[in-house]
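Try it yourself: sequence plus iron/sulfur cluster, in.
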Amino acid sequence: MEFKDEEYTIDVNQLLVVSEKFGSADVYGQNAKSILNKATGFIKAYDFTLNPYRGCQYGCTYCYAAAFSPNEKKRDEWGKWVLIKENAAEVLEKELMRWQKKNSDKFPSIYMSSVTDPYQPIESKTQLTRRLLEVMLEYRPILVIQTRSPIITRDIDILQRFKNLRVNMSIPTGSEVVRKDFEPQTPSIKARLNAMKKIKTKINDLTGYLPKLSITITPLLPTLPEEQENFIRQLNFVDRVVIQDFHASHKRSLIASTRDAAIDMKKKYEWWYSNEAKNYQQFKGKLVEILNDVEIKEGQAGFTYE
Ligand code: SF4
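Structure, out:
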């Protein structure tokens, strides 16, 4: 995820016990005191952010959320640990009930998730995000789900029961070779595109509510020149494509807390980063030119629900 919107205060070292391994990740469990956090910064238009997990098994090299790790060691091990907020569904029910009592004339707007992936591999076992969706349904939220995981298709039966839902699928590059360099633990580009197509087709077949569908190319990573056009053409079935560079000024490509792995990759892709602003504009131009019927948005404006 690419948003900086939460501060953490939990002393993980004191509260957590390693309960098991899932794949190569250490898995921790903890009861959360609260699950809805006030949305700020980039996504302040929403009432809340909702993160079922802390940490993320996908471990993208450039992920800013690593900076919110409980300590330096955990930051260095980003992608190798995940904490399950075990009581999240129960807490969510209580918090939404309380919120609705005070706001009987509106529905909550929720961004899930801002500093983790709600459909990372452990979700296939815990079904925690699925339980949160079941709780949320009753409260008719405006909901945005941000993920890069095909596991989301498991929940199509629930997704099609929402009335105000947008699914944002992160695909920061159109080149598999680049994906493997910058985010080696994530699903392939093809798997993510297929997942979005499946959501669209299956929900149409079910005649349920079809969510708004976005591809978020955020942050925009290099895509090999010979693969750009073909990649962009494959995005023509969604209603929005969002691009964003690493830094709004177009001057710095990585934020200060970026880990060494991403900085090394930036050096490897010098052909792109030495001309980053120009490459960004050219890529954007191709999106606009090729995707006639798709809304193209940039940065913060792309992360609204509407
Ligand atoms: S999937 Fe999102 S939250 Fe997880 S490591 Fe990648 S950018 Fe960070």
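One thing you can check immediately is this: The domain at 12-303 is CATH 3.80.30.30 (pyruvate-formate lyase- activating enzyme).
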